[in-house]
């Protein structure tokens, strides 16, 4: 399947109601999640091939970074495209390749390998610039909700396994808040996620077996969750809109659903052979299986559902209940392997 893959990047918007699909052959398509339908198609002749795409909620503005086989711009240029006007309306040049972009209606965060820039948006005043130890994977998140009391940006810290957090409530150029460092794992971070109001952050390392949930106000660890015992590459982490649940996808093909509030729903691990007692991290209370050879991103939909979108063009929606039962509700092919749209 990977040999024929036509999708280079998938990304949900801030409320998980839409997603973008960057095509390897060029162009970007925007889809609504429920019901699944195409909202916009931006032609390769207009934008070239795109490696990074970031919606601004459900507005007509989309942040982009060129990449792939037919780029119109270098990967050091950040672009904002207006899909109603069908043209780029902003360009911002950097000295090195852009690794990640996060946007909201009043702020913009851009990560290079060794620097992070935070701007007001759309005024484009630089609010802060910070040095990074190393961020080649583009690990970066910003509080999705507007006007949240915990308006923060999180990214890898100065030590291995550390997370750095900076408060960005103001959209004016003022004295920068002091970044807060949290030691989360002993290995390098591989994936992070913020809940909607920025009060919680989920982290996992390149080992991919343990997920930790942290309180961003106190920096205290709230939960330790176990995805599995074998190492895995984590593709995505996502909180539900009410922060009741967390989902996780990886190269093992299993999508895990954890309970964050009512933790008794999760399964406990028996560590008798190691400790002789009950204890340790909690296991997911619900799972469903996808083909392990296909990378996917997952997020929560409406009415206790999880949506998993594959790089092969597959769209899966599973309903779950508190007893841990998962039932596939929707299976669609939102784009086939030759680039035409279809519904199964």
Characterise the protein shown here.
This protein has one helix spanning 44-47, and strands at 7-12, 18-23, 28-32, 37-42, 48-55, 61-71, 77-82, 87-93, 100-103, 107-111, 115-120, 126-131, 141-142, 152-156, 162-167, 180-183, 189-194, 200-205, 210-215, 221-226, 234-239, 245-250, 254-259, 282-283, 286-289, 296-300, 305-310, 314-320, 326-333. The longest helix has 4 residues, at 44-47. The two termini are 18 Å apart. The model is unreliable at 1-5, 272-278 and 337-344 (pLDDT under 50). With 344 residues, it is an all-beta fold. Helix content is 1%, strand content 49%.
Topology of this protein?
Blueprint: E1 7-12, E2 18-23, E3 28-32, E4 37-42, H1 44-47, E5 48-55, E6 61-71, E7 77-82, E8 87-93, E9 100-103, E10 107-111, E11 115-120, E12 126-131, E13 141-142, E14 152-156, E15 162-167, E16 180-183, E17 189-194, E18 200-205, E19 210-215, E20 221-226, E21 234-239, E22 245-250, E23 254-259, E24 282-283, E25 286-289, E26 296-300, E27 305-310, E28 314-320, E29 326-333
Parallel strand pairs: 20-24
Antiparallel strand pairs: 1-2, 2-3, 3-4, 5-6, 6-7, 7-8, 9-10, 10-11, 11-12, 13-14, 14-15, 15-16, 17-18, 18-19, 19-20, 21-22, 22-23, 23-25, 26-27, 27-28, 28-29
């Amino acid at each position: 399947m990977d040999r024929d893959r036509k999708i280079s990047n998938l990304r949900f918007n801030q409320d998980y109601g839409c997603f973008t699909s960057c095509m390897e052959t060029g162009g970007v398509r925007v889809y609504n999640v429920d019901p699944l339908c195409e909202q916009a198609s931006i032609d390769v002749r207009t934008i070239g091939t795109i490696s990074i795409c970031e919606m601004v909620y459900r507005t007509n503005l989309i942040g982009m970074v060129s990449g792939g086989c037919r780029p119109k711009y270098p990967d050091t240029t950040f672009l904002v495209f207006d899909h109603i006007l069908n043209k780029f309306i902003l360009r911002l040049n950097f000295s090195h390749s852009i690794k990640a972009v996060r946007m909201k209606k009043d702020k913009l965060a851009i990560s290079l390998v060794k620097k992070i820039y935070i701007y007001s948006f759309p005024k484009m005043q630089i609010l802060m610039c910070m040095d990074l130890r190393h961020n080649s994977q583009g690990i970066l998140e910003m509080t999705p909700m507007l006007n949240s009391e915990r308006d923060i940006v999180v990214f890898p810290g100065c030590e291995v396994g550390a997370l750095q957090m900076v408060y960005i409530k103001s959209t004016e150029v003022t004295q920068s808040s002091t970044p807060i460092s949290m030691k989360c794992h002993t290995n390098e971070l591989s994936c992070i996620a913020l809940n909607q109001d920025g009060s919680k952050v989920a982290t996992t390392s390149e080992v991919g077996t343990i997920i930790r949930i942290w309180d961003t106000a106190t920096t205290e660890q709230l939960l330790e969750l176990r995805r599995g015992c074998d190492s895995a590459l984590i593709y995505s982490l996502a909180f539900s809109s009410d922060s009741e649940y967390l989902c996780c996808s990886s190269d093992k093909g299993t999508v895990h659903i954890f309970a964050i509030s009512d933790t008794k729903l999760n399964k406990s691990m028996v560590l008798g052979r190691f400790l002789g007692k009950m204890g340790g991290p909690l296991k997911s209370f619900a799972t469903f299986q996808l083909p392990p050879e296909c990378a996917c991103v997952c997020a929560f939909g409406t009415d206790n559902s999880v949506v998993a979108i594959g790089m092969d063009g597959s769209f899966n929606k599973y309903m779950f209940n508190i007893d841990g039962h998962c039932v596939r509700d929707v299976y669609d092919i939102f784009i086939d392997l030759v680039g035409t749209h279809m519904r199964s």
